[in-house]
Amino acid sequence: MTTTRFEELGTDALSHDGDALKVSDERIAKLLLATGALQIDVGDLDVDRFAVFNRLLIRRPAEYREAATPRTQFADRVWSATDLPGTQSIGPHNESSYRLVWPGRILFGCVDAPETGGETLLTDVQSVHDDLPVELVEEFRRRDWLLVRNYQSGFGRDWRDAFSTDSPDDVDRYCRTNQIKADWPGDDVLRTRQVRHAVTAHPVTGASLWFNHVVFWHASSLEPSHREFLTSEFGEDGLPFATYYGDGGVIPDAVVAEIRNAYARNTIAYPWRPGMLMLLDNMRVAHGRRPYTGKRTILVGMGDEIERQPAGVDA
């Protein structure tokens, strides 16, 4: 799939009749498999109407688990895309690639379009995989990747918000079930370590996909001054997020830069307008966001989850 074809098919609107799509589930599945992303123009959009389309397009809605960014929940299984400030850019990522179970589909909907910027970045991660040097990919196939997270009040995500509980025992049970190593190194501080595959096969096509958060949470993705401050205050082990090879080895900044460049070569920027829905194959297409000005209200729903076997946790 080339970026050009992806863009052309992604801008084809599907017809709708009120809140009921005329197109069949089978047709949507075929289009999504061919392009990775579909746009649907539905006219006026609010939370209630988005929730209807969410139920139509995602048959098995899912909760937002192991939360990584702040979101506002507007309705059952309907959230804001993110509550991060508009001045921040968000790099391409496949939703919840660090979990054992992740959404197969993501639905975005635009209630308010920004004055400037705010485009959603769409990245074909099959093309990213094919674009990367073979030796780089093979090293990650051999070693997998490790995500280390630190949850503490006042700095990064609080574990209560991320796991939707105030019970450490509940957190420990969840982590054991989901192949996550959990430690409590300080007063009310949780540190987790989870090893996952960097390359995953698409469940329908079998194509190899670059499906991970290696770049997104690598220390080199922080602003240099921010990275220097956080490292001096908390050490590398104390960063809210950090990524390594699955055996704990350091991933060199140069390797991450090479992957980041491959993302850039296979990414398009998708502008929003009110009343526009965007349905993504979360495995085929990573998403991100450009900075913006003005009011930007993008809703999101996710589901039709996919499960894989863990790579292991004894890194």
- Please tell me how large the radius of gyration is: 19 Å
- Uncertain stretches of 5 or more adjacent residues: 1-12
Structural class: alpha+beta
The tally of helices reads 9
Distance between the termini: 35 Å
Overall pLDDT metric? 88
Describe the structure.
Mean pLDDT is 88; it is low at 1-12. The protein contains nine helices and 20 strands. The chain is globular and about 55 Å long. The protein is 27% helix and 31% strand. Helix 4 (125-131) crosses helix 9 (253-265). Strand 11 (181-186) and strand 12 (189-196) form a beta hairpin. The protein has helices at residues 3-10, 25-35, 47-57, 125-131, 134-143, 159-163, 168-177, 224-234, 253-265; strands at residues 16-17, 20-21, 37-41, 73-75, 78-80, 90-93, 101-112, 116-117, 120-124, 145-151, 181-186, 189-196, 199-201, 208-210, 241-245, 267-270, 276-281, 285-289, 292-293, 297-307. The chain is of the alpha+beta class. A six-stranded antiparallel β-sheet has the order 3-17-7-20-5-4. A four-stranded antiparallel β-sheet has the order 6-18-9-16. Strands 11-12-10-15 form a four-stranded antiparallel β-sheet, with helices on one face. The protein starts with a helix and ends in an 8-residue tail after the last strand.
